[in-house]
Amino acid sequence: MEVGVGRPVAGELPITRPQEGLWLAQSLAPRLQNVISVVWGVTGPIDSDLMSAALAATETEAGALHVNFEVADWRVVQRRRTDVVCCPAHYDLSGSEDPERSGRDLVSGILAAPVDLAADQLHRVGLIKIADDRHLLFLAAHHLVIDGYGSMIFIRRVAQIYAALLAGDPVGDTPFAGPERIVREEEEYLDSAERIADRQFWSDYLDVVPEPPALPSARDGTEDGLKTKELVLSDAAGESVRLAADQLGVWVLQFVSAAVAAYFSTCARSSEFVLRYVAANRSGLARSEVGMLANMVPVKVATMADRRFSSFVAAFLDEVSKCMTHSRYPLSDVIADVGLSGHVRNPLGPAINLVPFLESPRFGDATSAMEPLSYGAVDDLLVSVYELPGDRRVGIRIDANSTQYDDSAVTEVLAELTALLRRVAANPHAVVGATAPRARRIGTVLPTWLGRLRVVRR
User: Fold this and answer.
1) Is 78 inside a domain boundary?
2) pLDDT at position 455, please?
3) Is 430 strand, coil or helix?
């Protein structure tokens, strides 16, 4: 089923600050794979025709997906595509030997080849049949046009339209206004007193920039891509972490993110270090808009220095909260303002991505579970923490730039991080010293306590 878009938009739009940094990285490394790819495993009966129609309608509405990027008069601009035809892909892999793996491999390969940002369509959506009562919905798009939060807004709208079509009700007005609204809201911010205050905050906050933690890394990595490992905690481990979080009066994912920061602390060279924290950067009408708005904020962290973990958690979460109130100020501007431009490696170190929820809507009688396959390119190391839909099991995922981290380094980071998490889950008031726990052989940790390790295939 095709839904055509026949309204060309005259003129051009500037790119936003978050897009600017991504565009520059892509132009410097054209073969860089910077794709947000997500699948939703749908279990239960669905109407494939109605699902394709819901995907097509949502794809049509999401104008931020239908743009290209080019240089005009020495400026990078985005232009609406005028030849858009929305026809979601449909694959039947039910007869393959391992349909689930084949489906994920298929999605991971979409947009894997270098793309022409000025001419190519920068997204794909579709439906994969695994069995009569099992399907994968997928969205794969260049990071320039969407972020992880945007993918959840996208599937939420698909579910709304599918429900309306299933009931024979009107679909209702679209919540999306397109890239024009995103650009307009950013321009309003850039001309505001809020931006001036944010700039002053970051200039004062980063007057002295501590070094990032010295994580285990490859000595001479040359491969261009990502090393990814993902761990889902066992039921027993997850319950232990939840009980410890409850003792401290914090959310379980806040507890785990603080444990990540505590692990970074054990790798710090001085009494203070810096890391980055992912911010959805959604305010106003942009809260309901598909697009690329994500930002990162620098966070300075005092090392453990033989403090109790409980006091470290409180101090770390307070620091994150303080910095997040200034999260609209673009990280690229922060780096330029404090004189950190031109570094080969990001001078603000690794990043923590707390994923508050994985949007997993119902489609009639069918349930779904969201599974991010790729969060896009990573310039250093990104640790994402999340809860699985349904059983709420806790997951930890590490994405590392393979020019800086080899497979053994990523394994070492995950092993040492989970060893520390195990210790503070058993006693959240434990004194955690400044030396990293030595758990270099991940096999000594996983079988007895943590759970299932999944190496993401690339």
Assistant:
1) yes
2) 42
3) coil
Strands (E) in 113-186, as ranges, are: 123-131, 134-142
Nearest C-alpha neighbor of 298 from the set 267, 320, 265, 325 = 320
Contact 152, 116 (CB under 8 A): no
Residue-range definition of the domain harbouring residue 314: 207-358+378-455
To the nearest 10°, the Cα dihedral for 152, 156, 157, 158? 100
452 sits in which H/E element:
strand 451-455
Question: Which residue has tokens 């490696």?
Answer: 345
Residues 6+ apart with CB under 8 A from 30: 114
Q: Are 380 and 401 in contact (CB under 8 A)?
A: yes
CB-based contacts of 134: which residues, under 8 Å, 6+ apart? Answer: 41, 42, 43, 99
Nearest CA to 116 among 84, 146, 144? 144
Greatest Cα pair distance in the chain: 64
Structural tokens at position 190: 């850039």
Tell me which range, 1-15, 213-227, 414-428, is most confidently predicted by mean pLDDT: 414-428
Torsion angle of C-alpha atoms 414, 419, 420, 421, degrees rounded to 10: 80
Higher-pLDDT residue of 171 and 9 is 171
User: What is the distance, to the nearest Å, from the Cα of residue 292 to the centroid of all Cα atoms in its chain?
Assistant: 11
Tens-place pLDDT, residues 293-307: 999 999 999 987 778
Tokens in use for 446? Answer: 């996983």
Tell me the C-alpha distance between 38 and 52, whole Å: 17
What's the whole-number average pLDDT of the chain? 88
Residue 442: CATH number of its domain = 3.30.559.30
Q: What phi, psi does 453 have (nearest 5°)?
A: -90, 130
| CB-CB contact of 108 with 37 (8 Å) | yes
pLDDT top residue among 84 and 157: 157
Regarding whether 137 and 211 lie in a shared domain, the answer is: no
What element of type H or E holds 201? Answer: helix 193-205
Per-residue pLDDT tens digits for 82-96: 888 888 999 999 999
Q: Which residue has the tokens 């933690």?
A: 213
Pairwise CA distance, residues 242 & 234, whole Å: 12
Cα–Cα dist 229/414, whole Å: 8
| Count of structural domains, the chain | 2
In a domain, 371, yes or no: no
The tokens 């321009």 sit on which residue? Answer: 187
Are 157 and 297 within one domain? no
pTM: 0.90
Instruction: Name the residue with tokens 């579910």.
Output: 159
Residue 193 lies in a domain: no
User: Is the pLDDT score of 118 beyond 70?
Assistant: yes
For residue 377, give the nearest of 223, 226, 215, 217 by alpha carbon: 226
Model confidence over 267-291: pLDDT tens digits? 998 899 999 999 988 877 678 899 9
